[in-house]
Amino acid sequence: QFQLVESGGGLVQPGESLRLSCTASEITFSGYGMVWVRQAPGKEREEVSCITPGGGTTNYADSVKGRFTITRDNLKRAAYLQMDDLKYEDSGVYYCAAAASVSLVGGRLTCGNMHVWGKGTLVTVSS
After folding, report:
1. Do the Cβ atoms of 62 and 44 come closer than 8 Å?
2. Residues 6+ apart with CB under 8 A from 106
3. Cα–Cα distances in angstroms (integers) from residue 1 to residues 4, 74, 90, 107, 117, in the given order
4. Could you read off the pLDDT of 27-39 as tens digits, one per residue?
5. Partners of 95 in the beta sheet?
6. Residue 68 pairs with which residues in a beta bridge?
7. Cβ distance 22 to 96 under 8 Å?
């Protein structure tokens, strides 16, 4: 089993940007979809974005669509989340996860069976 480690979180003001990175310990992660999930204190986890193993198809939560971009570089064993125009409600711990189940139905991407998780990186948006 491979491990995932997130980095890139920090404290930013509204409207600024951050780029999160997720690095896998083994190249075998490339066979999985990658997912970014966030959780604010006292709230449920929210799936932010997912990407297919090859990186050709992505999906975003409505709350971040148009502002966030998920990418991956399998040769570098990494996935990324570019977060632009950050808002207060984007604050939380961001986790990356590997999805064993990736489905395309009607052009919509669904990632599931996220059994490998990183420990998270904290994003705080504050003025």
Report:
1. no
2. none
3. 10, 16, 30, 30, 11
4. 889 999 999 999 9
5. 37
6. 83
7. yes
